[in-house]
Every structure is written in structure tokens, then in C-alpha cells.
Amino acid sequence: MPNTRSAYRQLKKSRKRAQRNKAVRSELKTRIKKMKKLLAENKLQEAEEYFRIVEKRLMQAASKNIIHKNKASRHISRLHTLLNQARNPSTN
Prior knowledge:
The chain is mainly α and 92 residues long. Helix content is 82%, strand content 0%.
């Protein structure tokens, strides 16, 4: 336990931030899974619309340092590649 009042307040803030960050990371994982599921089911129209949402949320998380910017870019790149492969299956 913290020894001073300011350290205690800092601990409370830290726990609150950690909880918020965990929720955002969980949301990102869920959105990525849903995107992959849409692509697996060949729902291209829905997947294209949903990709914009996923991309935006990944970049928001990266800008707030919840995830690393390179990790966000990597996820976006891989999802975009999957989307392009689903659009043009002959170029695989």
C-alpha cells in the first residue's frame, strides 16, 4: 500500500487507467475477430464498411498509447490484405 496520500491518489488513477486500457484492448480484439469472421463468410460489403470502423479504433488506441503505433499499423495492414484477397480471390 502507498505511504502518502498523493501516492494513494496516484494508485487510484493508475488502476482506473489500467481498467480503461484493458477494456479498449479487449474491444480491439473483438472487432478484429468480427472483421475476420465477416471475411470468412464472404460478406464483403459489410466487411468493407466494418474495416473503416476497425481502422479508426486501432489508430485511436495507438494515438493514446494504449497499443504501439506499429502494432496498430500491422493489424490494419493485415486486415487490408485479407480484404483485398477476399475481393480478388484469383490473385492469391
